[in-house]
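Protocol step 4 of 6: structure prediction from sequence.
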Amino acid sequence: MDRIKKILATEEGRIFYVRNINQDFHTQYGFIKKADLKKKDGSKLHSNMKKTFYIFSPSFIDCYKKIKRAPQIIPSKDVASIIAETGISKKSVVVDAGTGSGALACFLANYAKKVASYEIREDFLKVAAENARFLRLKNVEIKHRDVYQGIDERDVDLIVLDLPEPWKVLKHTEKALKTGGFLASYSPTIPQVMDFVNALKQYKNFIHLKTIEIIERQWEVDDRKVRPKSQAIGHSGFVTFCRKIQ
């Protein structure tokens, strides 16, 4: 997968991703000459149809938006809640299971010291590993392991579970997490949340902090015409946050 070399942005906020700066870049607004694609960040460019573009280098989030997808990934609104509620930093060690496309593991690795991600399906492992390479993340370890059978890491700051039966991993998270460490479980249905929280009550070392659902609604702002966009980003999943207290 070719890395994104440059970002082109229109004045209206349309974003285009340039992977090859050695050839003209074509859009519905005309093409940008290859010589212009090598100009410095912040330069104003014009297509052959006189459309104005601005050019700059891609950030992590630009590249992240173009990763490959195997199964459905956790939306950024929910990823943001996990980062905000647990406060991970460059000192944090994180365990993620299951990996899927590796989207969550890669996003967390942009903040954490190290991320170990567990996945049993080899086809998903290949996609996740390719995404980590594409994002040039060297602090992600993709493990071909069944997390239901155990977690290798110890003194972990955060464990995130995106599994059909997350309650089956509680006995392993109890051993892996440091005192004060966080456990977050992402589930698409309420019965999964109920089973997880009820199972958690059997572990005296954990407290249930809260379970949340985030709905995102974008707004259109055009002069004084301000209104919600027609369709909100509704239910994606529930995030249950817990903490190890002993």
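Step 5 (inspection) to follow. The helical segments are 60-64, 76-86, 103-109, 122-134, 170-176, 190-200.
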